[in-house]
Amino acid sequence: MGLQTTPSRATDTRGMELAVQAKLRAILPFWLSEPLLIIGKLLWASLFAVLILLGIILSKAIWSDAVPFWRYDALVIYAVSLQILFLLFKLETWDEAKVIILFHLSGTVMEFFKVNAGSWAYPEPGVLKLFSVPLFTGFMYASVGSFIARAIRLFDMRFTPYPPLWMTFVLAGAIYINFFAHHFVTDIRLGLFAATVILFYRTKIRIRIGAQDYWLPMVLAGIFVGFCLWIAENIGTRTGTWAYPGQAWYQWVAWSKMGSWYLLIFVSFVTVTLVFRDELDTPDKRSTR
Fold this sequence. Notes:
The structure is a single chain. The chain is mainly α. It has helices at residues 14-27, 30-45, 47-62, 71-88, 94-116, 137-154, 165-181, 189-200, 218-238, 256-272, 283-287; strands spanning 129-130, 133-134, 158-160, 204-209, 212-217. The protein has one domain. Helix 9 crosses helix 10. 31% of the residues are buried.
């Protein structure tokens, strides 16, 4: 069942969107008002991720030894509180929350492995840490899931033509396994990059702004979101929240990390399709037309 069948379970901002749209179009030319609407809607869809990043930045700016508990522990409490508030104020549906829990669990498992494999580290102390991983990290992965789920709903997205579901599940599984397996066997990420293009090169995403529809290639969307996550990762390293071996806090994260985020986007999106199905123009739907 797709989420569009239960719109009442999330706060409907369509009226506000139409009012803002009318105001912008009244005072600005179309070529300027439309990008502003899209950017504003993207920011609204990524609200959970933006608030997590703001928490990381502000906590780094204001924290001192005089505070009687650790910054990482405060971030855990902050992230849990955000998730509760999102549900209470119906900024996320319960169906979306179920998928986001999957992101939280799969992301935390990856963190346990990667940190103890030496891929990166969390240098600050904290009580709410397990296997050297502060427990707020799962919410960073959950914020990716939150963004995708909210963006699909808020932009009224449709994906067409969408590949057979079983192929997307195989691809997502292979990507996730490779994040672990490349420490022991040959890294196949180049093949996985190619697989995302082969499988999704025809897929376009419809986004709706008011009564206007726009179409975006899905692979290009994956690159864009991967770049945004790479920027967010640099915020994390520059605030000292996590660190890569041999990298100073002021250095940019390697560009290769953007490739990892690009692949993770496809894992994330396929996970979301466990709930979102009505939005996918799959072969079985096309065959019944």
